[in-house]
Amino acid sequence: MKPFRLSRRTVLRGAGGVAIALPWLEAMAPTKNAYAAGPKRLVVFFTPNGTIYENWKPKGTTTDFTMSPILAPLEPMKNKLILLEGLFQGAKNGSGGSIPGPGDDHMKGMAWALTGRQLMPGSVAGGGGATPAGLSTGLSVDQHVAKTIGKDTRFSSLEFGVRSLTVAGNPLFHMVYASAGVARQPEQNPAQMFDRVFKGFTPGTSTPDPTVLKRAADKTSVLDAVKDSYSSLSPKLGKDDKAKIDAHLANISDLQKRLAQGSTTGGAMGAGCKLPTRPKENDPYSEANFVENGKAQVDMLSMALACDLTRVASLQWSYSSGGPTPSWIQINRGHHDISHDGDGIATAKDQLTKIDTWYSQQFLSLIQKMDAIPEADGTLLDNSMVLWVNELAKGNVHSHGPMCYVIAGKAGGALQTGRYLHAEENHNNLLVSVMNKMGVEGNTFGDPAFCTGPLKAL
Amino acid sequence: MQWQVLFRAAALGVSIGAAACSGSVAGNGQGQGDDGSEGGSGGEIKPGGDGVPAASDGLGRLDESQVKECSQSKVLDPGSTVIRRLTRREYDNTIADLLFDASSPSKQFPSDERRLSFDNNAAYLNVSPTHTERYDLAAETLATAAVQKNLAKLVSCKPASATDEVCAKTFINGFVQRAFRRPVEKAEEDRFLGVFRQGAKTDFNTGVSLVVQAVLQSAPFLYRVEFGEPVQGDDKFVKLTSWEIASRLSYLLWASMPDEALFAAAKDNKLQTRAQVSEHVQRMLKDPKAKRMVGNFHEQWLGLGDVQSIDRDAKLFPDWKNENIQMLKQEVNEFTSSLVFNDGNIKELFTAPHTMMNGAVAKHYGVSSPTGTTFEKVEDDKRHAGVFTLGAVMASTGKINQSSPVLRGKFVREHMLCQSLPPPPPDVNAEAPSLDPKLTTRDRFAQHSENPACANCHRLLDPVGLGMENFDAVGRYRDKENGLDLNVNGKLEDTDVDGTFNGVFELAQKLSTSEEAQRCMVTNWFRFAYGRTESDSDLCFLHQLDARLVKSSGNLRELLVATTELDAFFYRRAGGAQ
Which one of B198, B238, B410, B451 makes the best mutation probe of the A interface by having the most chain A beta carbons within 10 Å? Predict the structure, then answer.
């Protein structure tokens, strides 16, 4: 039986600016099991260098608000969004936050965004005379969630990047962490990502075709021989060398297991799953390919979810303190460079607004694609939580609050969307909420000194 | 030469006072992949014992009796070595030689962690799940391409049928020996024959392709495994086999696998004496692959290893494109390798009044010739002083809108003198001072010397970097800034060549007489050649390299040759890495 639902437009018109009473909202919110037919998915979307708060901030109340210039492109999806602001990373410090430990503010914020923890001391010198830092001291929330919701899919998680560059051991480039000091690097080459995710995969087939089975048997044979080369070497080595070779062997066993699964599962999802076309090879380091590769990654990310190849994904645009020169929106200075200009410089403010507005359009593209995949009573987006994060609040002062986020999707009914929320709480509380809304229990995440439980406002 | 040898990085003794000193000693904060992945300040080398920051003494000195020990006839402790995974560079070069495939597949691998400037420190070459996936994908792609394009080069026999195991074995033994860089064991032949059989269910070529796939992911291909052989009367050290020495030579001098001549010598066990090895070293240094390696060493030593792109304010540097750094890195390669292979010496490396340019580089510097794509020697003693004035060095130590005397000072301290700087105090505001059209960089950085809390650290940095102000943030020569005459007086403290100097040319001259700088370069070659950070047990080796450099009047090629003559090159500790 289809539950009766009020259209939002009707409600708002009817309420006429009067504060809306809670029972109404309850009636509008989907019930907890409305989307139970599809699994939950978590997607993280990252853009760098902070934002221009005055042009990000929506106008109005929690449920009756108008979009800001930066968020204007998201208007068509307004009722599937939560606009969240006011959190602080680390310790509260005025309207901002203060993250402990080594590293510069870009590095610290990048690690804090998903791990809620400080950086290790290390050898990477930051800007601003910061103490040299290494990688984060903790695992990221998406990886934590992936241990539960990602364990049955071909990939426990997929990390997409768009000119995310990635220098090993450098915290500016990493936000996803499998554990303390172990970063998962985003893939910035769409063609390579296609091969990794979709090669040998045929959507919608319950009996894999014979060529896929043959390929799987070949792979098994190859990797068995590869494993032999490690297991026969290992006992002949000294302690440290043995540890290295054993770790490599464990990685190969995992890969083999995953490839074996891949040939027999996946493709069981709804009609929305279609094999994307393989993106054409290009230089992912080139700024000229930024827009094209971004589009390709969005297409593949949404399809990897639709085909249930993974349930946890992230899309990292550039990297903390990075940002190409966005000539495609007629700006001829680098994003990070502009973000350092003072408040009084109107051109810089306009350009930064324009850049973030462009990122809003990319966010819209992602969530619209997810919303176009039907699943049971709703859509793929309804079963998902898409979280847009940044390593900073404001670029020119490198502040860590008030942070601005956009959340899309209803997380299978766990999130009540169509709201604009202001909450002066720890950023880590949001991370607790992310895991809770994904069905993972717990009252704290990241550094417990900066966490008081799930975000009350959410 | 001086018997008191100091090799280890000297930690500079400065007490740290918190203050709002502007101007960062840390990276340039652009995050273009060029900032801070190397870490003289944060690497393994720590200030002297007891928590007391040491001045330039007390670390790793050899007294006369120790020097005597170094020259005794017994085998010296070869030091601690760990199993070495191929770096991305080595993987690509090896694939090019093994499979005749120059597609540089390692572009798709995670980058190698850099330690003290270099990408080949074996202790830090780990394998993540991403590596394993990428190795698998690359192996599949490479194997497919190899069978399509180069089957005849890989398989010398003609298969009588899809399942012709005689021919398969011929292929396996030939290919695996080259890939593993040693003879194939019976168990390995059986293992790969099993893989071949699986593929041969489709056809012979698929069998070959699967074997290639498996070999390219196997431990003896991806790692350089060394067991050595027992030495009579010595249970502490083992001597490397000729096969292992062949790989040591090829990966040191070419960053790739051995060639047929090395394999032949290994097969005849003719890589056991210094004379036997020397013959191959002389031959190998004539190969273009050696030039590639030498250029790469200097690029990494100078901190340019990860620099792919440098962002500059388009208003101030309208002609600059982010990727211009690539051609300036090529200049580094051409300049340094031309010295090494033309009997250049360390003094020239530091002070040569010339560089190498092609048309594009010349245009960047505003020089009218050359104009073509070939690199040619360009001499001008007003503009060039060895590595110090290379555009890539000046640009990579610059900021987005200005030169940085602080980063240049840091470059000289860390890369040229192997000194390690303490990190700045946590609460400094270290944004570079804002541009001011009425001031020079020196004027804007005056606070560092006026504020005593800043001056304590910055006395080591700014007076060095300010002497290099004749070069702007993209490495072009200037004698004025904002229309004002430049004052390029500088000063060195806490070195063995302390004193004032005027401009980068005098700085370069001064450092060319510095034993500290000379030993720093020796230490860097050791780190690069052996893929590890030096430890106390390596002091004799560093001493021997230094002695060779002195004896040959600073000849750079001789220094490189000497790295293949140490006991550390021929031996390793028994019992695997600990």
Answer: B198
